[in-house]
């Protein structure tokens, strides 16, 4: 039996915080609106048949051309206006790498690049807040 609901539902995304041994974070430059030309964490919408961590691995590979091992879940972010397109809830994952992996932009990213976590460019969405909380809670 299929159930449908008549009330609106939020979209769900995943984003990845990938940290190198040099304390750099991998970012992508967005190639599409909203925030075209701004830097963001790699991530995107989950497919209906995907687990959250699987979606995060897929998005990392699609947008930055990299693969990592296990991803650990950090937090979920769901402020009402965090995405100008619609109501979006994002689950954030993270991993530490043994080296700065070579990243290559793909999908809806025009660039993929490592940035020192203490010298970040202006970030899209609420990704600045996410990284500030990550630094305070995980990198302390």
Q: In total, how many domains does the architecture comprise?
A: 1
- The number of helical segments is 2
CA gyration radius, whole angstroms: 15 Å
CATH topology: Nucleoside Triphosphate Pyrophosphohydrolase
Strand fraction equals 25-35%
| Shape annotation | globular
Give a quick account of the main beta sheet: strands, pairing sense, barrel closure.
Answer: 4 strands, mixed
- Parts with pLDDT < 50 across at least 5 consecutive residues: none
Structural class: alpha+beta
The CATH fourth-level homologous superfamily: Nucleoside Triphosphate Pyrophosphohydrolase
Distance between the termini: 49 Å
**How confident is the prediction overall: mean pLDDT?**
94
String of helices and strands? EEEEHEEEH
> Do you know the CATH architecture?
Alpha-Beta Complex
Question: Portion of residues in helices?
Answer: 10-25%
CATH class: Alpha Beta
Keywords:
single chain; 140 residues; alpha+beta; Nucleoside Triphosphate Pyrophosphohydrolase; 3-stranded antiparallel beta sheet; 2 helices; 7 strands; globular
Description:
It is a single chain. The protein is an alpha+beta fold and 140 residues long. It has one domain: Alpha-Beta Complex (Nucleoside Triphosphate Pyrophosphohydrolase). Helices cover 17% and strands 31% of the residues. It is built from two helices and seven strands, in the order ββββαβββα. The longest helix has 13 residues. The model has no long low-confidence stretch (mean pLDDT 94).
How are the elements arranged and paired?
Elements (H helix, E strand, L loop, with lengths): L10 E9 L4 E7 L8 E2 L2 E3 L6 H13 L7 E6 L10 E9 L12 E8 L10 H11 L3
């Amino acid at each position: 039996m299929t159930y449908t609901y008549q009330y609106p539902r939020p979209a769900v995304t995943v984003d990845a915080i990938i940290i190198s041994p040099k304390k750099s974070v991998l970012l992508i430059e967005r190639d599409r609106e909203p925030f075209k030309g701004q830097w963001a964490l790699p991530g995107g919408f989950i497919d209906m048949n995907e687990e959250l961590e699987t979606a995060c691995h897929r998005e990392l590979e699609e947008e930055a051309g990299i693969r990592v091992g296990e991803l650990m879940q950090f937090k979920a972010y769901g402020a009402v206006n965090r995405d100008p397109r619609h109501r979006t809830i994002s689950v954030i994952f993270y991993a530490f790498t043994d080296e700065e992996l070579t990243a290559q932009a793909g999908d809806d990213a025009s660039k993929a690049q490592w940035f020192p976590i203490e010298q970040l460019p202006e970030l899209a969405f609420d990704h600045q807040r996410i990284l500030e909380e990550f630094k305070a809670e995980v990198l302390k």
